[in-house]
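Cross-posted from the bioinformatics board.
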Amino acid sequence: MSGFARVVHAEWTKFRTVRGWTAGMLAAAAVIVVFGLFPGMRGTCDDSCSLPVGPEGGEVTDVFTFVHRPLAGDGSVTVRVASMTGQLPELTGTGQRPGTAPWAKAGLIVKDGTKQGSTYAAVMVTGAHGVRLQHDYVHDRAGKPGAVTASAPRWLRLTRAGDVVTALESTDGTAWTGVGTVRLDGLPATAEVGLFVTSPMYVEGHGTAGAAGAPSLATAGFDHLTTTGSWAPATWTTERVGGPADEDRPLGGPPPTAAGEEPGGDRAPAAGQETGAEQTGDGFTVSGSGDIAPAVAGAAGLGTTISQTLVGTFAGLVFVVVVGAMTMTGEYRRGLIRTSLAAVPHRGTALAAKATVLGAFTFAVGVVAAAVVVTVGPGIIRGNGVYVHPVSPATELRIVAGTGALLAVAALLALAFGVLLRRGTAAVTLAIVATVVPYLLAMTVLPVSAGAWLLRVTPAAAFAVQQATPQYAQVEGLYTPANGFFPLEPWAGFAVLLAWAGAGLAFAAYRFRRRDV
Amino acid sequence: MTRDPLSQEERVRPRSEERLRPRPAGRAREVPAEGLRYLRAEWTKLRTAPETVWLVIGIVAATVGVGLVVALNMPCTTAVCGGDPTKAGLTGVQLGQAVVAVLAVLAIGGEYGTGMIHGTLAAMPRRTGILAAKAVVVTAAVAPAAVVAVTVAALAGRHILPAGVPTSTVVRAAGGSVVYLVLIGLLAVGVAAVVRNAAAAVGVVLALLFLFPVLAAAAPDPTWERHLLQAGPMTAGLAVQATTGLDKLPIGPWAGLGVTAAWAAAALLAAAIALEARDA
């Protein structure tokens, strides 16, 4: 072992005494930091910008039209959703067209008051995802598929018994099917129960960075509204939860302009759309715009994530790959490889020592740079008025360590290419093309599906380790790399790069042992 | 270049010896003849380097291959949902340019790797002449490959995704792509002459090309995104491929190609200054 330590020491001496290599590594760290702290974004969001926080700690969107009554203790509410229509924004032009957003929601909800972010359970029909039972923003359970049409209405029933909320659905109001049961621990004895309608930001696009989201509107016709249990004698109240602050604005008046980057509940529907409720015989017609869901960053969501501060990783990667390839090809170029192999005849040991020095140094440089960016960067972006989604310390740690590991393993991949090809140019090109180009194509020209496929199988998959916020199936969004979302789980994506580098180094070691030099 | 530098030097040597032989007075100093000699020498070096032919094939293969894959995978081909069939078919240029960069970098960086640059400078003392000759022969190697690659990619793309745009626009996109690839070759020649290390030069060129779109796509601020797209040699230059939504481009097709040309000119200028000022 001390023999190996000596070889590592020799390799370290070689590495640190080549001025270009250490300079290249420091330049890698410098570009990551500079791009991270570069005030390249501006927003209109000041200190007051914040999102409501859900019962499980995550930030949530909680904006909907709520027709409610207090329910003291146990009880149930039943309604028929007779119709569901909506308006979608024309993303390629202006104005709206009829249509419901896939995750437009209309149904019954039991909620701890009307404060944003409070605990709730809701059964609903959706635009394109059938009946769902959702609670506490992040949980989603599917009922039967199918959308509501005039010929196929849907009956919904929500029953509260203590902490347990049960949801039922029916097509005719007599034969009921269970959707599921959820337990709401924080639900007080008296909860607000009633009808709700909301419709999320509508997004469209196929991987182009320019695609954006715009608000949509949903309108549901409810009838056959019946209740059982100890309901307060008060009549139904309409409220736009998380609605515009100017509450005395007349219903249907001009809504404030939607500002895509501003978080909070003030995301009003596009001009010309109206939210609110109107009593109709034994029911209501309710229109809503917003969402009851976890908050997601990106074109359809709000603000940005700390992944965005690490965009300089690409620039750093180029430096690291050049140095990684040249630690090997430089020896071939100068003929030093013959001396090296005379001193350390065991090829595997020589390669392992080189990989150890290169990997460890790159990891250290990457971790330091990423740590600086993740610590300081978000503050600068917030100072520029852009909302940054907070992440847990564990996630920050994963992103920092992951960035270091990503750079280190990419350098090792370049080292393997260097051993195999013995030419710096070819090794550098191959390493950059393998890591950067798939990401670039996925982000700019490829359709989402093809781009996702590339980011699953190529070394570029490792950028998943920088994903800061999770992706939710029940929230429509542009889950693209440009918005900081990747098709693979963070460490799974990193494992793809690891597998490439491992295979590359194994093959390199095999070829290295069998070749003359 | 590491493979057999000696044999290449041998191929060059007779020419320099020839130069030492007595010549008819008045002809030796003739500038056009000298320029042609430089060109012939550089062309011989590029032609006989074993990797050149593979790189030329690689330019065609990368450009056509990626273009086909992208064209076959486009779910939406109309301008209404943001699609640009012509541009999609020419996507391969984004990978083909990497091969162009390698070819161009090796044409000059390879000499620094093997030390042949000393022989070259001894035989051909005019440094800007060498640079000009290298630029010309790299263009001569890249241009035919680019013409073949872009033509095949454009025809195949048009077959897979029939575009509803006039032929003249498609010809502009294809012709512009050829010019673009040549400009990237010139940019790479300039960078390689400044950096003097082939591997580092390829890193610099690919970083210049690919960083701008990556940064632009990640920039949440639209103004910055637009400026980055206007400034990058790749993002600006490839605007020439757009055939739909021209009014929404961050930079016009020809203006964009002009930006790429400016990058190439700047790189060559820096190279000329560096070559004149430095020892080797």
